Amino acid sequence: MDTIQVKTSDDIKQLSSLAEEIWNEAFAVLLTQGQIKYMLNKFLSENAITESIKEGYEYYYLSDCDRIIGFTAVCPKDDGSLFLSKLYLKKEERGKGYLKEVFDFLKSLSKEKKLNRIWLTVNKQNHRAIAGYKKMGMSIIRSEVTDIGEGYVMDDYVFSIDV
Q1: What is the CATH number of domain 2-162?
Q2: Which backbone phi and psi does 143 adopt, to 5 degrees?
Q3: Is 80 helix (H, G, I), strand (E, B) or coil?
Q4: How far apart are CA 12 and CA 44, in angstroms?
Q5: pTM of the model
Q6: How buried is residue 49: exposed, middle or buried, by Cβ count under 10 Å (0-12/13-18/19+)?
Q7: pLDDT per residue over 90-139, tens digit each?
Q8: Do residues 84 and 115 touch, judged by C-beta distance below 8 A?
Q9: CA of 123: how far to CAs of 21, 79, 115, 129, 154, in Å?
Q10: How far apart (Å, rounded) are the C-alpha atoms in residues 87 and 59?
Q11: For residues 118 and 103, what is the distance between their CA atoms, to the nearest angstrom?
């Protein structure tokens, strides 16, 4: 698996389109269509991605044999941690061992940036992701409910792992 950093406006446009494809498939059983649409616009629209890159987030396509299989986004934090903001694989790519490769990349990136911990949030009902993160050695450190506007909340576990 390879990573390709998202940098250009064309990259951002393609990433936003990929996010829409993945989210509409992956979250249809967890969230209402209204919340999916709202969250895509708020967090993964071209404008939202552009703004988050300006704020220090880094987006990467995940590829294998020149096929885009998904994407990830991270942000180094002042507390010496790497926030794993996004990690999504296309449906047909899940269960093929890519999660371990992504985590190897994230651990390497953390060490390169002199960061000692990776953390993330995950929907409490996303049992597949929770199982995957536990398999990678991550632990739940707390749960949190975040108001994201328009009457929607994110009801998440916070996972962490030292690197």
Answers
A1: 3.40.630.30
A2: -120, 155
A3: coil
A4: 9
A5: 0.95
A6: buried
A7: 999 999 999 999 999 999 999 999 999 999 999 999 999 999 999 999 99
A8: no
A9: 19, 24, 25, 9, 7
A10: 10
A11: 9
